[in-house]
């Protein structure tokens, strides 16, 4: 269920979906090569407070990706300790609109984390937040149970119901591009393959 989306990659999944399923490009992997796919478990946190992340680890199922709205605040909401706890419970990764720290250790652990900042400033533990309720990540709604796929190009979030169709369309797209690339290697031009020579000029 998660190998194929990773193999197709976020750019292909986005194009194949025909949906506004991409998260803001401000979300970046905190170490090069990080990638993850899994069921979203949504978390809402307050500015500078990571208590809901600790609660989320109790709720999480193996294979879940924590998707956290922390309002983009520049705090280190997540680091080595939480990653070790997450790995022990089979949590597959993290996407947070906020900061992450201990990034060298996360890379060594191989724990895939995506955030909008790397930040060393620690958090308080005063507001329990929500775990599992729908959230909005920089304008994109995310529900627990959605498929989240994150790689070096970006992040897509797909409602469960559309996943089989998007995977099928993604496979078709890859096959078509592979056929095109075989012809490009023979010297043909994208202008001809994509039929772009006779495009009408802007009036
Ligand atoms: O402790 C925290 O709140 C965040 C962190 O650095 C870790 O999990 O290692
Ligand atoms: Mg730490």
From TrEMBL:
InterPro entries: RraA/RraA-like (IPR005493), RraA/RraA-like_sf (IPR036704). It comes from the Bacteria. The keyword Phosphoprotein does not apply. Its cofactor is a divalent metal cation; Mg(2+). Mg(2+) binds at residue 102. Its EC number is 4.1.1.112, 4.1.3.17. One of its GO terms (molecular function) is 4-hydroxy-4-methyl-2-oxoglutarate aldolase activity. Keywords: Lyase, Magnesium, Metal-binding. Catalyzes the aldol cleavage of 4-hydroxy-4-methyl-2-oxoglutarate (HMG) into 2 molecules of pyruvate. Also contains a secondary oxaloacetate (OAA) decarboxylase activity due to the common pyruvate enolate transition state formed following C-C bond cleavage in the retro-aldol and decarboxylation reactions. Homotrimer. This is Putative 4-hydroxy-4-methyl-2-oxoglutarate aldolase. It comes from Sphaerisporangium krabiense.
């Amino acid at each position: 269920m998660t190998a194929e989306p990773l193999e197709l990659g976020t750019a292909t999944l986005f194009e194949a979906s025909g949906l506004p399923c991409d998260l803001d490009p401000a979300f970046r992997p905190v170490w090069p090569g990080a990638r993850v796919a899994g069921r979203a478990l949504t978390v809402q946190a307050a500015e500078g407070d990571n208590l809901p992340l600790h609660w989320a680890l109790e709720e999480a199922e193996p294979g879940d990706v924590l998707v956290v709205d922390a309002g983009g605040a520049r705090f280190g909401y997540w680091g080595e300790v939480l990653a070790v706890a997450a790995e022990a419970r089979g949590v597959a990764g993290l996407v947070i609109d906020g900061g992450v720290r201990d990034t060298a250790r996360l890379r060594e652990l191989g724990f895939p984390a995506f955030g909008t900042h790397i930040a060393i400033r620690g958090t308080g533990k005063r507001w329990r937040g929500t775990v599992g309720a729908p959230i909005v990540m920089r304008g994109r709604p995310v529900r627990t149970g959605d498929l989240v796929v994150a790689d070096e190009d970006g992040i897509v979030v797909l409602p469960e119901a559309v996943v089989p169709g998007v995977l099928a369309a993604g496979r078709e797209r890859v096959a078509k591009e592979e056929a095109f690339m075989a012809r490009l290697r023979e010297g043909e031009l994208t202008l001809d393959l994509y039929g772009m020579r006779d495009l009408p000029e802007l009036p």
